[in-house]
Design brief:
10 strands; elongated; four-stranded antiparallel β-sheet; two-stranded parallel sheet; alpha+beta
Length: about 350
Amino acid sequence: MSNYSSESPDYQKLADDIRLWARHLGFQHVGITEARIPERDKKQFQQWLDQGLHGDLAYMERYKELRCHPEKLHEGVIRVISARMDYLPAETETIKILNEPEKAYVSRYALGRDYHKLIRKRLTQLGKKIEAVAPNHGYRAFVDSAPVMERPLAQQAGLGWMGKHSLIINRKAGSFFFLGELFTNLPLPTDEPYEKNHCGRCTACMDICPTQAIVEPYKVDTRKCISYLTIENSGPIPEELRSKMGNRIFGCDDCQLTCPWNRFARHTQETDFQPRHHLDNSDLADLFLWTEEEFLERTAGSPIRRAGFECWLRNLAVGLGNAPTTDKVMSALHQRQNYPSELVKEHVAWALKQHHPNAQD
């Protein structure tokens, strides 16, 4: 194995090795870029904040300096290795579930185990492989766990372009993938930024968004986004948006499902990303009647855990309010009618009213 700490290290050879090692670790694509955010992306981010489109995500404003200056996140960093890992499970009846209002729709990324630990572990393994041949290598892995503007970095590293839904799209793989970053102090050769944009005049993602959260190309109003409302938001879901959520109880994939480029989306080979506990085909009513113990047991190691049981019930109550009026749906709602949480109780009351709009409060 070569030693890259010599006086004339072959960093191009090391970059090629990094790509090979990354593939062996389960990444489908890696690119290398300078540890800086382009001025256009900083400006767009500031405009998004100024317009209040980040909603209650105060940390976006609080850590904006770090987001805009990745060199402040890790001492001595000069390069970012941006990595892509596909997550779309095979044989999940995505569209069918959205068209069955008694079923619960969970975003495809959340059907299996939490991606944070898996990808961070793989990136750390990649860092150690580099360290074995470049002893002066300093590195730090990030997976949606620090104020990193991962999408501009991924575009700069050549992984794809920013779609109108604000996600990175790859011509050969669509957008159903996770991103992770390895910060390093090695002067590796960089990849060409992906400057082309292949969205053209297409507005499919904007047109299909249930709550019209994509307010203009490349700009999402977090306050309307179903992913935010069902995951990040810990309070009531705005009443005017509830009927638009349908059966989406944790996240939303509509903007990706309609994107023409996702006909090239690759199915994941990772067993950890395969659906667990039948969450790809469960009835809303069945999930609504889970006890808190069942919730904690069945969401162990799952992204769903971050929503918490109370918000899980809140989301399901909205889904049940949008479901057909059946004995099973009504029975489930009545069983939670006096649940000892004002948040849940209010959403159950709303759901019941959708089925019996003329009933007295």
